Every structure is written in C-alpha cells, then in structure tokens.
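Format notes (please read before filing issues)

Several people have asked whether sequences and structure tokens are stored in separate files. They are not. Every record keeps both together, in the order shown below: the sequence lines, then the token lines. Line labels are part of the format and must not be stripped during preprocessing.
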Amino acid sequence: MLQRVKNFKNFIIVLLPLIVLQLSCAQDAKPSEAYVFKNGNPNGIGKWYMGREIAHVMGFQGIDWLERTARETEENTSKLINNMNIKTGDTIADIGAGSGFHVFKMAPLAKNGLVYAVDIQEQMLKAMEARIYRDDVKNVSLIMGNEKSVNLPENSVDKLLMVDVYHEFNDPKEMMASIEKALRADGKIYLIEYRAEDSAVPIKKVHKMSEAQAVKEFEAAGFVLEENMDNLPWQHCMVFVKKR
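Then the structure lines:
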C-alpha cells in the first residue's frame, strides 16, 4: 500500500508540470485579443484591428502599376521625397518597398548613409536586386521582412517610410512593435496613405486610411502625430514621432 502511495505521488509530480505546460501552450495558441475576425469588404482579409479591416496585400504581379509613368503626376512623389528632408548621412527604411520606386529616389540623397529596402515578397526583392546591380547602387540594403517584423537592427533608423502599405499589414500591432525598436529616439515615421476622408480619391475603400484612424493606431503603438503635411494630391503625408 505504501509503495502505491509513493508511486501515485511520483505520478502527480511528473503530471503537474505537463498540465501547466499544456495550459501555457493553449494560452499562447489563442488569437491575439487585439484582432477581431469577421466578414467585411471583399478586398479585405476578414481581420480587424481597432475597428479597421485589414486589406489584402498587393502581390508582385502589381509591379507594373507601381512603376506606372503616371505615378509622379497622380501622387507627386517628388514632393513626398522633399517632405522627408533627407540628409546625406541618413539611415532610411522603406517598409513594403515593392519594386523600389521610392528607394531609388532616396538613395542618391542619402549618398553617405544607407537605405534599407524591406519587403516580404521574394519577387519584389529580386526586382530591386536587379536594379541595384544594373545601376551599381552602393547604399541600398535589401531586407526580407515577415508579417510580424521588419527585421531591422535595433535603434538603427533615422527616417522610416511606409507608402500605401501599413493598411495591408496582417499583424499591425506586432509590426509596429518591431518598427518602434528599429527607430532611433529622435527618428521619424512618414506614413503615406490614400485619404479615406476624400471620396474623390479613386482607390478602393479598404485601401484608404483616415488621419483619425492612423492616429488611434499609432498612439497605441507609442507614437504621436507631429504633423500631417497634407500637400499630396491623393494621400496623407503623416509624420509620427515617439512619445516623449
């Protein structure tokens, strides 16, 4: 009888840690409470963050649209680059760089610095790699990101650009946490999004963002709106800095 009691005690000692581990794993497996899953716009993914449905990512098949000749006229990309006030020694990150449309405009301005071109699609990175090789660009570094991280060194970036990409982040809370780590204390985020407040902007609703929505999400991530330059034809040019 005594031996049975000892065996039972040993069984409990072994079993309890396993139960705790299983409960812990089950909690980790739960979807983040930050997100809500429900049907919505056919151009969305059915995942919502702070009242906004996340849009489908534009695939590499859209490279021609990114490089369209009308883009300068429609978006005034030259003014956008001027808004960033790029210095020669700046370290800049273009998140969701795509074909590198903005990357290769910024690189000559930061000639003594570095431009990180971050994307999650291998085809986009290969397109930029071909351009780097063709034009012998020395200060562009290609980074393969993922849905939860920009994969940049901590405290490495002076200016961070996101052009019509933030609204497509599958996991915006996690992405903004990784961006916060990569951005230097006095760094700036330039968030470019099609204006949801303007029905005349010829872009699908789920691919637009309002200033109010952007401020709500970025404040939750530890940032404040420094200014909205509001000088682009279709897009907001919102500048965010870390809360001090």
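For reference, the curators noted about this record: Residues 2-30 form one domain. Confidence is low (pLDDT under 50) at residues 1-31.
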